[in-house]
Structures are given as structure tokens and as C-alpha cells.
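Lecture 7, part 2: worked example. A protein chain together with cobalt (II) ion.
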Amino acid sequence: MSFTIKDAQGIEGMRLAGRLAAEVLDYLTPFVKPGVTTAELDKLALDFVVNVQGCISATVGYQPPGYPPFPSAICTSVNHVICHGIPNEKPLKKGDIVNIDVTVIKDGWHGDTSRMFLVGETSIAAKRLCQVTYESMWKGIELVRPGVRLGDIGHAIQTYAEAAGYSVVREFCGHGIGQKFHEDPQVLHYGKPGTGMVLQPGMTFTIEPMINQGRREIREMGDGWTIATKDRMLSAQWEHTVLCTETGYEIMTQSAGTPPPPAFVKPQATPTSAVMATTAA
Ligand code: MF3
Ligand code: CO
Ligand code: CO
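Predicted complex, written out as C-alpha cells:
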């Protein structure tokens, strides 16, 4: 499997694209209320991406082999929809949960991130699913450093989600990302420790677990994109684009509105070289 290593300039490009992607979600947040349609959210997102950020939407017209072109600037996956939901005219209602996933291109670099949004007051069960899914993503992220293997990351995510009584979607995964939207490696959200690709500094990839309340089986809807749970129970997803650094990880898709890491995530030790560089400057 081939993959790309980003140099300092590539990392700068990924930081900017990642922050801009996260800022699209910040911008949309106050609009995610009962009564808004996902098509309205998409219109807001596209206008912001193109006319405010000066970015290109990576998803409008995106067409992997065997798929129709994706029509929108965001994926909106409501309740039992797992991923790749196409925005539509149906208003969100109180109690819905919705994943909004956005990918922008800035100066040729991609930033890809998603969050869960609670529409008004939701059930405790729905909140718990969103919370555990967020924590599952972080169980993967916190392991990222050179020498760790992709199977270690998948295993940590799977173990955490399954211990909470949930299941992990297998058909879709995280991915390398850079000047291409989806590049190697595939980042599975399940797996065996000690297996899979060994991480190296300069790799950028997404971690984006899809966690189901019920069974893991999926159903493909007739539009060629939308993926839902077969049992119609709820599904949640969170996504960050991360960089493997010399000593750990850096979140590329970070903005003012990014939720803080869960309490179990230990702050990373600041590398000595960075301290010295700061002191010298
Ligand atoms: N952003 C999604 C991902 O995380 C991919 C969406 S492709 C689309 O990989 F065409 F459905 F938008
Ligand atoms: Co995404
Ligand atoms: Co992605």
C-alpha cells in the first residue's frame, strides 16, 4: 500500500484546509435547529465555503467509480442514516441527531471533518450514542504516534464502542488525505492489535468511526449514496483529520468551535525541540 508523507509545506496546507473545514461546522452550528431543512444547511455551507472562505467543495460533483456525482457541499446523515446522506427538503425535528460532514479544498489541500448535532432536546439514549462515538474517535486519535499500527487504532475504537453495547460499521473507514480526498491507507475502525500499517511522521489521515446503536449491518438507499442501518436504529459518527507527528498527533481539523477532547485524553508532552525553538524565538 502506498501513502504520502507531507513535508513542512504540506503540513501547513493541511492545517489551513483542516481549520477551514472545521469553521464550516462552526458557522452552521447556530442554524441546526428544529424546522431547518438539510438543503438549507447545504446552501449556507456552499455559500460560506465558496464566497467567504475562497475554498472549493470537495464533495460537489465528487464521483468515485460506480457512484453518481454527489450533489452537495455537506453530507447530512439523520438518525438511522449512517453516512453520505444527501441534503433534502425535509425539516429537522426536535429529538433528531444529525451528522454534518464537510470536506473543503484550499490551495490543493483537503480538510475533512464531521460532528454530531443534537436537534433541540433529544433522548438520553441518542445523547449517549453521540457521546460514546466521540469518545471512540478519541480512543483512536490518542494512540497516534510513529510506530503505532493501524490495527492498534481500529482495535481501540472497536473495543470501546462494543463495551458500551454498540456496533462498528465495517463497510466504510477513515482514509489517507492530502492533495487527494481519499488516499491510502484505509483506516479501519475495528481490528487486531499489532497488525496493519506502521504509522510514520508526516502521514495525514482521517479517523471517522460510524457507531450503531443496534446491529452493524447497513442498507444502501436507492439514491446511490445514502447508507442507513438495516435495523433502522440510530447511528452516529465523528471525524477529524489528524497528522502523525514525530512524537504523537496533531488535529488538523481544529477551530474555535471544536469540542475539547474527552477527559481520558492525556495532554501530549511538548517535544523538547519545540520548547527550545519557542525559547530561542
Ligand atoms: N466526507 C466523507 C468522508 O469522510 C466522504 C463524503 S463523499 C460524498 O470520507 F461524496 F459523499 F460527499
Ligand atoms: Co468526511
Ligand atoms: Co473522511
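The longest strand covers residues 97-106. The first helix runs from residue 8 to 28. Keep this in mind for problem set question 3.
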